[in-house]
Amino acid sequence: MFFSVGALFGRAAAIDLGTVNTVVAIEGRGIVLNEPTAAAVYTEAQHERGIISSGADAERLYGRTPGGVNIIYPMKDGVIADISAVGDMLGDFFIKAFGRRRGAAGARLTICLPLCATELEQRALTDAVKACGAREATIIPEPLAAAAGAGMDVFAPVGSMVVDIGGGTTDTAVISYGGIAANDSIKTGGRHIDGAIADYIAAQYGVRIGEKTAEEIKLSLGAALIGGMERRQFKGRSLKTGLPECVALTGGEVSHAIAPTVRKIVDSVRRTLSETPPELAADLIDTGIVLTGGGAKLKGLDKLISHETGLKVSIAEDPMYCVALGALKLGSGEDMDAPRYA
């Protein structure tokens, strides 16, 4: 599959609407917003449809809301699960990002979606952005934006490889001459690693932990390579008694729990390599693989992929922001020396 980006110049802003976080970058300012892709909504029919709060304000209410209010995550595995909530949430985000009550009114926006997104899902997101007042909305593939944001020359006639590991999806692509020559996309990412940890603790210890605790365990003890004897305690709720209970975990346990999920990511990389034309595959011996996205921070993942592929693997600078910054570069023609942060 080949995507051309030659006609995408002239955009004023870029959005990385992820499963876990939404990032907005504006030409001349860099990253101006990074907030959870979350919304607090009424669940009772008598309330008028609409969100109560969004982003960090909504997530602060997680687990603390009264009856009739839910915290929802309107993106699932990289695509829209609740179009109405996404539209309202983006309206809030644009007001914060652009610093004006009219939000994105008149702006020209570049949006990123994973390769597995369907045409219907792409159209739904484009319509949601335009409903917020955007003059124009263009979608580009996430791995292409990630590569540009990582500082790779995506227009060079040389093969280079990027693995973008988001909250809900992992996109792997070999890029050359402004397009994607080989790719693979799976609905596996950081959220699935968190879920594997929570499921392991429930099965092994009979304790249910929350999403935030699972993420904390991943960041503190998680590793792609099996091992690690560090032990830490975490709090949850006993499935047997319903009472609060502590559980002590080692790094080795966590690595074992997430191994099947990590294996899916490694297998995706190997599939992409198997479909790469020989000439571009030869280039990768020199250019290697670059990891982007929040999942790139999983300890030892770069070493595991390097061991499995025989290629050198590096982690991009600020991997969480590569997609938004790359989309801004491709959409506006900004030089990468432009500001990265407002």
Nutshell version of this structure?
This protein is of the alpha+beta class and 342 residues long. It has ten helices and 18 strands.
Mean pLDDT: 88
In the sheet with the most strands, the strands line up as 3-2-1-9-10
Strand content: 25-35%
Please compute the radius of gyration using only Cα atoms: 20 Å
Number of domains: 3
What is the annotated CATH architecture of the largest domain?
2-Layer Sandwich
Major β-sheet, in short? Answer: 5 strands, mixed
| Counted beta strands | 18
Q: Assign the CATH topology of the largest domain.
A: Nucleotidyltransferase, domain 5
What shape does the CA trace take?
flat
Top CATH class of the largest domain:
Alpha Beta
Structural classification: alpha+beta
Instruction: Report the order of strands and helices.
Output: EEEEEHEEEHEHEHEEEHEHEEHHEHEH
What low-confidence regions span 5 or more consecutive residues with pLDDT below 50? 1-11
Please describe what this structure looks like.
This protein has 342 residues and is of the alpha+beta class. It folds into three domains: 101 residues, Nucleotidyltransferase, domain 5; 92 residues, 2-Layer Sandwich (Nucleotidyltransferase, domain 5); 69 residues, Actin, Chain A, domain 4 (Alpha-Beta Complex). Helices cover 36% and strands 27% of the residues. The chain contains ten helices and 18 strands. The strands form five sheets. A five-stranded mixed β-sheet has the order 3-2-1-9-10, with helices on both faces. Strands 13-12-11-17-18 form a five-stranded mixed β-sheet. Helix 2 crosses helix 3, helix 4 packs across helix 10 and helix 5 packs antiparallel against helix 7. The longest helix has 24 residues. It is flat and about 60 Å long. The relative contact order is 0.17. The N terminus is likely disordered.
